């Protein structure tokens, strides 16, 4: 057994396709299949369900996959620790961020890049549940999510403050005065919203419903970029986080504050407490904690 076999197994899980997993690992598909069969023979277990195409993992395969992630995370942590001992910080920082929050990750990544030019980044937009799950299974180093119902025995947190809301619109299509908008002012507007289930959307619904208001959104989507395209095209306005950097995406975009508008829970940086914990996560966590 070697590290590469574990990487192949994880690549197959992430792509759910033999050919794509092989391409990601820069090997041929027959080589990938052979190396995975070698791993199965060594463990004495069938890990992968095979048919005309990838059909998933067996129950033992799922358990081995979880261990593979832990082993690979420990291996990456060992490499990063050795680099730190040599005076360098290298590797890939895996950061998961909930969509539409007041935290803009780019200034942090730019600062880390300046301090540690050999550092690479993997940035994912995930739900709160996905972030906690991937932190637990070592698929993420850090998460930016809401702190509601967080198990503080399993996760270390750094509060980042509340997420306030504003109305994002394109000035070529809509005009509003200087005064902050109230929730009642939004009812008759063509609104674009994220689909239900996301924390930010739940907070929007709560703000409306607690005031006895029932919006009829013109557009609902689970893709933030489609929402932004609809705003720029003049199809709708969208309720977005203040201080998230969205208004900087174009000269015609403006973010107008909404009175008494905030998410149901505060935002925070989250890192797992238990080992293995990457040095990259600890350095980033400490950097933000120092700035706080």
Question: How would you sum up this structure, described in words?
Answer:
The chain has 292 residues and is of the alpha/beta class. It folds into 3 domains: 1-86, Winged helix-like DNA-binding domain superfamily/Winged helix DNA-binding domain (Arc Repressor Mutant, subunit A), CATH 1.10.10.10; 89-161 and 264-292, 3-Layer(aba) Sandwich (D-Maltodextrin-Binding Protein, domain 2), CATH 3.40.190; 164-262, D-Maltodextrin-Binding Protein, domain 2 (3-Layer(aba) Sandwich), CATH 3.40.190. It has 10 helices and 12 strands. It has a 5-stranded mixed beta sheet, with helices on both faces. A 5-stranded mixed beta sheet has the order 9-8-10-7-11. Helix 8 (199-209) links the parallel strand 8 (191-194) and strand 9. Helix 2 packs across helix 3 (29-43). The two termini are 44 Å apart. The mean pLDDT is 86.
What key phrases describe this protein's structure?
single chain; 292 residues; alpha/beta; Arc Repressor Mutant, subunit A; D-Maltodextrin-Binding Protein, domain 2; 3 domains; five-stranded mixed beta sheet; 23% strand; globular
Judged by helices, strands and strand pairing, the structural class is alpha/beta
Say what the CATH topology of the largest domain is. Answer: D-Maltodextrin-Binding Protein, domain 2
CATH superfamily of the largest domain: Periplasmic binding protein-like II
Cα Rg: 22 Å
Biggest sheet details: 5 strands, mixed
Average pLDDT figure: 86
Question: In whole angstroms, how far apart are the ends?
Answer: 44 Å
Which percent band covers the strand fraction? 15-25%
Shape: globular
Order of helices and strands: HHHEEHEHEHEEEHEHEHEEEH
Helix count from the secondary structure assignment? 10
Strand order of the largest sheet: 4-3-5-12-6
At the first level of CATH, what is the class of the largest domain?
A: Alpha Beta
Number of domains: 3
Give me the count of strands. Answer: 12
